[in-house]
Amino acid sequence: MDYVKAFLVGGAICGLVQILLDKTKLMPGRVMVTLVVTGAVLGCLGLYEPFARWAGAGATVPLLGFGNTLWKGVKEGLANDGFLGIFKGGFTASAVGISGALVFGYLGSLVFKPKMKG
After folding, report:
1. Do 35 and 63 form a contact (C-beta atoms < 8 A)?
2. CA dist., res. 12 & res. 1, Å (int)
3. Are 88 and 77 in contact (CB under 8 A)?
4. For all residues of the chain together, what is the average pLDDT?
5. For residues 61 and 97, what is the distance between their CA atoms, to the nearest angstrom?
6. Residues 6 or more apart from 36 whose CB is under 8 A from it?
7. Which pLDDT does position 104 carry in this prediction?
């Protein structure tokens, strides 16, 4: 049942984002930034953690989850390192995910030989 719930929640998030892209003039980059900021704000308000526990990977994998991870890192960095923790906490918390995205993106580019649109 966890897989079904994660699929439905993740699909609902993606569906809402697709509607946002189709019905507004927002560019995809702005929508992605909006998702990250929304995840961070919901994490700050204490609303994202209970939602993520209930929804599982359906809530933690999309960009909302990345924003929440950044927030948790900043909060922890601030508690451990003071003012400088605000700047390094998010990097520390998300380093594995960012590194994975870079490595697998590069490997994908080697396999599929992407080209610029003409």
Report:
1. yes
2. 16
3. yes
4. 90
5. 10
6. 63, 64, 66, 67, 70
7. 92
- Read off the pLDDT band of 97 (50, 70, 90): confident
Longest dimension (CA), the chain: 49
- 58-91: string of b/e by CB count within 10 Å (b at 16+)? bbbbbbbbbbbbbbbbbbebbeeeeeebeeebbe
Which of 48, 50, 56, 59 lies closest to 12 in space, CA to CA?
Answer: 59
**CA angle at 89 for the pair 84 and 90, rounded to the nearest 5°:** 130
Write the single-letter amino acid at 65.
G
Q: What is the pLDDT of residues 3-37, one digit of tens each?
A: 999 999 999 999 999 999 999 998 988 999 999 99
Q: What are the structure tokens assigned to 83, written together? A: 């003012």
